[in-house]
Amino acid sequence: MKKPLLEFTNKGIYCSAAKVYLDPWQPVNHAIISHGHADHSRYGHKHYITHHRNVPIISHRLGDINVVGKEWGETFVVNNVKFSLHPAGHIIGSSQIRVEHKGEIWVFTGDYKTENDGISTPYELVQCDTFITECTFGLPAFKWTPQKEVLHDINQWWAANRAEGKTSILFGYSLGKAQRLLKYLNPEIGKIYTHGAIENMTRVLRPLVDFPDTTLITRETKKDELLGNIVLAPPSAHGSTWIRKMVPYVTASASGWMTFRGARRRRAIDKGFVLSDHCDWQGLLESIEATGAEKIICTHGYTEIFSRYLREQGYDARTEETQYEGELGELNATKEEPVAIE
What Enzyme Commission number(s) appear in the record (predicted)? Predict the structure, then answer.
């Protein structure tokens, strides 16, 4: 039986012909990394290859690593296997990984979205024989409203809270979602304050994107200074002593999971904005069809439901287990302790 070009092992997705892993979750010698989220870029590999925009991100998160940056579409060959990175549109520096060997082409998407968010390099269609896709939101219930409308609603929410003299606290993952929100917050409404994890990551990304000014919350910050303004914080800060000292405040979360009211209740969030860095149901289906791939491998998300639907549409589709978590991956990713508010 012919060995597949990419295999799913206990260390990660492995290309045995090149002796290279894609987004491995156990330490390996050679790793190609799709993007900077903690479930896809881990510490301990001897050699890293990624897109050059992702180099400062993973260097910030992982420390002193041996990393090489590549351009979009740049072909690099390892043991006669051709690799190239193509925009995934998920977050800044996120890539799909194209693998070609002996006339066979596979694409590993990592995480991806097809809507252009204005800060990430837009998703690029890459045709292939086998397509490895996430399906974080692989249910018909997930249908995204255009970003422009959602961000308008967020600014309207902030303005209304300011009129009532309340602090607006908006939760978004420290890498990707927070910067997407920040890019479109209206500084004419008030000041934008940040949790340390978000501020530090945003500083890394400022050379790449023109963001509004932000103010880091420090021990010297008084809660009266926050009234009427907005605070960007990671989800892990919710319910902490740090946030309880900001009363009176109103909370909101920007996530694809906000589609369901039950998710908002479980997280004790006042307001939910449906904004995801992943494809919705239709985006997944349209992407898969456009690749021309006959074989589809579904990872992390609603894998069983989604792959069964694809088989009903005539695809050779199956599931594989990974340690990727999609939009849940950043919930507890920050290790930075928030400072006290006086």
Answer: 3.1.-.-
* Distance in angstroms (rounded) separating the CA atoms of residues 305 and 135: 10
Task: Average the pLDDT over each of 71-80, 142-151, 264-273, 331-340 and give the range with the smallest value.
Answer: 331-340
CA 95 to CA 57: how far, in whole Å?
Answer: 13
Contact 203, 336 (CB under 8 A): no
Residue 335's closest CA among 242, 237, 239?
237
Q: Where are the beta strands (DSSP E) in 33-162?
A: 47-51, 67-70, 76-78, 81-87, 95-101, 104-108, 130-135
Enclosing H/E stretch for 32: strand 30-32
Three-state DSSP state, 140: coil
Q: Which tokens in the block code for residue 111?
A: 């995480």
Per-residue pLDDT tens over the stretch 187-231 = 999 999 999 999 999 999 999 999 999 999 998 999 899 999 999
pLDDT digits (tens, 9 = 90+) for 279-323: 999 999 999 999 999 999 999 999 999 999 999 999 999 999 999
Indicate the residue among 235, 250, 273 that finishes a domain: 273
Residue with tokens 């070009």: 5
Q: Which amino acid is at 236?
A: S
Tokens of 261: 């009211």
Per-residue pLDDT at 117 exceeds 70: yes
Backbone angles phi, psi at 211, to 5 degrees: -100, 155
Give the 3-state secondary structure of residue 23.
Answer: coil
Q: What is the CATH number of the domain that holds 294?
A: 3.60.15.10
Residues 6 or more apart whose CB falls under 8 angstroms from that of 227 comprise: 165, 166, 167, 248
Answer whether 0.90 is exceeded by the pTM: yes
- Of the three residues 252, 273, 294, the one that is the final residue of a domain is 273
Residue 231 lies in a domain: yes
Q: Which of 257, 248, 256, 263 is nearest to 168 (CA)?
A: 248
CA distance 177 to 276: 8
The CATH code of the domain that includes 269 is 3.40.50.10890
Based on the fold, state whether residues 115 and 11 are members of the same structural domain: yes
Phi, psi (5° rounding) for residue 196?
-55, -40
Give yes or no for a contact between 219 and 251, defined as CB atoms under 8 angstroms apart.
no
